[in-house]
Design brief:
By secondary structure, the protein is mainly α. The protein is 81% helix and 0% strand.
Length: 312
């Protein structure tokens, strides 16, 4: 066997392990090393896009996924990668197009079916989502991803008992199944079991501290406990869930607003108010850079308050 093939397979194995344990930077580095050996390997580009998604580098992820499809236009996995990109971007129609193409090539791939059902749920096409979920469950009745997705379906249908049933089934197979922990936490919060809901949110965040759904659950819990504190959590969750480009755009918009306001107030002879607005602008700038780090520290402290029971 060619030494390069051996090296590439090893790098893919390393990337898979890194992804599994949440070390997406390490996985990306391994795949970049593989691409330095074989830059025209479409699978490597497609697989790289999944790590970039986790880092919220959506533009880069889409570029890699498109390169992967261009190199291997008949690859079901390449279509799946682009389907994932468009799902994240909430371009559901484009996601459906690519996922249907992936399933035309590989009709019994449960991962493809699971993502397609998630897209239909995002579009509130519940009947279509259930058809796909039924098909996936027939193929993989013990797959926690499918069971968790079924929980999401019933949650959206406001059937809390059924939702919890499927989340529990998924967690009995994989106790740390991320999305089932989040889903069950949502059910518990709606029921008013705030302490248990918080445990599930923290367990989820201990696995993926940047997961938007888990952060959203914890934020909703904070809002239920203290409405004013909940507002602060919502603001900072929104800030850290974006990328630097969004932060820069927000700062530019704030700069224009505060400066136009300060000039208008000065022209009206309200010098004190104009100075106050200028001071507020500097406060916004400082908070935009310091706030997310402070929030991350608070989040870390929150994660240390709950430990997963070994018998769970």
């Amino acid at each position: 066997m060619n030494d390069n093939v051996i090296s590439i397979d090893r790098f893919i194995e390393i990337a898979s392990q890194r992804y599994r344990y949440g070390d997406f930077s390490g996985g990306i580095d391994a795949l970049k090393s593989a691409l330095s050996i074989e830059p025209d390997n479409g699978f490597l580009h497609s697989y790289l896009s999944f790590g970039l998604i986790k880092q919220k580098r959506i533009v880069a992820a889409q570029y890699e996924a498109e390169v992967g499809l261009k190199l291997e236009p008949n690859s079901s996995y390449a279509h799946y990668a682009l389907g994932k990109i468009f799902h994240v971007k909430r371009d559901f129609n484009a996601a459906i197009t690519h996922l249907k193409q992936a399933l035309a090539i590989e009709p019994e791939n449960v991962s493809f079916l699971e993502l397609l059902s998630s897209v239909y749920l995002g579009k509130s096409q519940f009947a279509e989502a259930k058809v796909i979920l039924d098909r996936a469950l027939e193929l993989a009745p013990d797959d926690p991803d499918i069971l968790g997705q079924y929980g999401d379906y019933w949650y959206e249908m406001n059937e809390q008992y059924n939702a919890e049933k499927y989340y529990n089934e998924a967690l009995s197979i994989e106790p740390q199944h991320l999305y089932s922990l989040i889903g069950k936490g949502q059910v518990l919060l709606r029921r008013g079991n705030i302490a248990e809901a918080k445990e599930h949110a923290v367990w989820a965040l201990q696995q993926d501290p940047n997961n938007n759904l888990a952060l959203g659950l914890l934020t909703n819990i904070k809002a239920r406990q203290n409405p004013l504190m909940g507002i602060w959590w919502r603001l900072n969750t929104w800030l850290i869930s974006g990328n630097k480009a969004r932060t820069i755009m927000l700062l530019l918009a704030a700069y224009i607003f505060f400066n136009v306001s300060a000039i208008a107030l000065a022209d009206a002879g309200l010098e004190l108010m104009s100075s106050t607005v200028s001071i507020l602008w500097f406060g916004v700038v400082i908070y935009m850079w310091v706030g997310p780090s402070w929030f991350s520290k608070k989040l870390k402290e929150e994660l240390e308050t709950v430990v997963l029971d070994k018998s769970f």
